[in-house]
């Protein structure tokens, strides 16, 4: 039933006012505030109307939210409070252009800007409901600061955020004073059943460096089988791992039982190169190798602003992937047959390189699918990509959670961090964080000192 104007008094309940950035991050956000009430200013609907056309994820989020509100309201007026459909959820309402009596954000910060009208909507709700705590929820830090300056509570949208990114799962543990006997057995190539030895069990697949004085063994713990086995440092498609973390990454990329892999690390640690080389090594096992990345221009404008046809528009964004493929091809100088084979794979689109938006709606069957720069995805985008996986498909996410180009995402709220934290105990998943840069000493200088 719709409720007009002021809500019934319940001091423990809050009113959360969401801005456009929250909806574009998660179209289902209105259902994630438990028993509390949720409102959106009319300007948010207006902005979403501008975002509804297109193939980008934000366009999908905008369309999905509009449909959700349509289903929620049915025959009711959304200018009134209407009940949300989620179990034990609160009420929902769209707030119109109402000016608060006490503090006018447009008088303080300037007229004509949508953000200031959104602030006024929240301030008017605060005046209408003095017994309730009204909170503006936004991914926009500046808008939150303006709200607080006007004595209005404001916070980030927390759903999907990782609480302590500094303790994010790294995929590797070093064990000292480990049994020399076990180390020797592993190095001989034997697979050891961990149920019969003193071993710190993990809830998922994991890599270990076992040490005892001068002896070291690098092993993979298979959670399903409860076994540890040696990790090879052999080359993959003529790319040799330069450190043990890279060897761990290659092991996960080549293991047919692991269907989902994530590799996190600074620029120059070899994430994309290892993923592409491992895909090419297994090219006969997959129908296609697909390498993609989300398009995020520095000006945050759509690629439609760029001159030329579709290929000309996207090529600059795909250049780092082509650079890695070119580097791999250079390892086969003198081997004309393999060089021609790589060219053939590209020509026949056995290996395809394209923006992420181009694959929306497709079912990925028997595909080795690499998503580069995955830190620029939202948690919902990551979930959507994985849900597209058909039979015999392997999905690899690579990225650096501290190098984010997408507005309103950070190291805690991006899709790569979300995946690492939530998938770490799944038997189909493996993760490794690459620590050491291998691009050049100069690149390492930038990562370490600047």
From TrEMBL:
Domain PIN: 14-145
Entry's Gene Ontology molecular function annotations: ATP binding
InterPro entries linked to this entry: P-loop_NTPase, PhoH, PhoH2-like, PIN-like_dom_sf, PIN_dom
Keyword line: ATP-binding, Nucleotide-binding
Pfam families according to UniProt: PhoH, PIN_4
GO CC aspect terms: cytosol
Transmembrane stretches, start-end: none
Superkingdom, natural source: Bacteria
SUPFAM superfamilies linked: P-loop containing nucleoside triphosphate hydrolases, PIN domain-like
Family: Belongs to the PhoH family. In the N-terminal section; belongs to the PINc/VapC protein family.
Name of the protein: PhoH family protein
Organism: Pedobacter chinensis
Organism ancestry: Bacteria, Pseudomonadati, Bacteroidota, Sphingobacteriia, Sphingobacteriales
């Amino acid at each position: 039933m719709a409720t007009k104007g002021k809500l019934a008094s319940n001091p423990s309940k809050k009113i959360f006012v969401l801005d456009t950035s929250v909806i574009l991050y998660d179209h289902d956000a209105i259902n994630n505030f438990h028993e509390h009430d949720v409102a959106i200013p009319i300007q948010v609907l207006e902005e979403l109307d501008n975002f509804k056309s297109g193939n980008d994820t934000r366009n999908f989020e905008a369309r999905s939210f509009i449909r959700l509100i349509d289903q929620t309201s049915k025959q009711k007026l959304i200018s009134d409070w209407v009940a949300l459909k989620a179990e034990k959820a609160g009420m929902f309402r769209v707030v119109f252009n109402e000016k608060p009596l006490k503090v006018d954000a447009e008088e303080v910060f300037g007229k004509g800007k949508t953000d200031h009208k959104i602030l006024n909507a929240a301030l008017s709700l605060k005046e209408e409901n003095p017994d309730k705590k009204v909170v503006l929820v936004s991914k926009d830090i500046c808008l939150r600061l303006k709200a607080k300056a006007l004595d209005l509570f404001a916070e980030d949208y927390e759903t999907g955020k990782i609480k302590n990114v500094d303790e994010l799962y790294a995929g590797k543990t070093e064990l000292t004073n480990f049994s020399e006997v076990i180390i020797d057995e592993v190095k001989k190539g034997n697979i050891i059943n961990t149920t019969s030895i003193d071993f710190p069990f993990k809830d998922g697949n994991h890599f270990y460096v076992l040490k005892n004085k001068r002896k070291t063994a690098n092993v993979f713990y298979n959670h399903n089988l409860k076994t540890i086995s040696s990790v090879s440092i052999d080359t993959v498609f003529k790319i040799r791992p330069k450190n043990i973390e890279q060897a761990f990454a290659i092991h996960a990329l080549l293991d047919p039982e692991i269907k989902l892999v994530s590799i996190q690390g600074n620029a120059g640690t070899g994430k994309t190169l290892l993923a592409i080389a491992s895909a090419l090594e297994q090219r006969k096992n997959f129908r296609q190798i697909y390498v993609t990345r989300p398009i995020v221009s520095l000006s945050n404008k759509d690629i439609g602003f760029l001159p030329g046809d579709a290929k000309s528009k996207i090529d600059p964004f795909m250049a780092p992937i082509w650079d890695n493929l070119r580097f791999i091809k250079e390892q086969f100088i003198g081997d004309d047959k393999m060089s021609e084979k790589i060219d053939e794979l590209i020509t026949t689109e056995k290996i395809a390189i394209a923006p992420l938006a181009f694959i929306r709606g497709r079912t990925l069957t028997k595909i080795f699918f690499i998503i580069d720069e995955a830190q620029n995805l939202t948690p919902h985008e990551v979930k959507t990509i994985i849900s597209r996986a058909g039979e015999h498909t392997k999905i690899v996410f690579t990225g650096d959670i501290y190098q984010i180009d997408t507005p309103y995402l950070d190291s805690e709220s991006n899709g790569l961090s979300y995946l690492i934290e939530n998938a770490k105990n799944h038997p189909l998943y493996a993760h490794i964080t690459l620590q050491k840069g291998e691009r050049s000493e100069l690149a390492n200088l930038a990562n370490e000192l600047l």
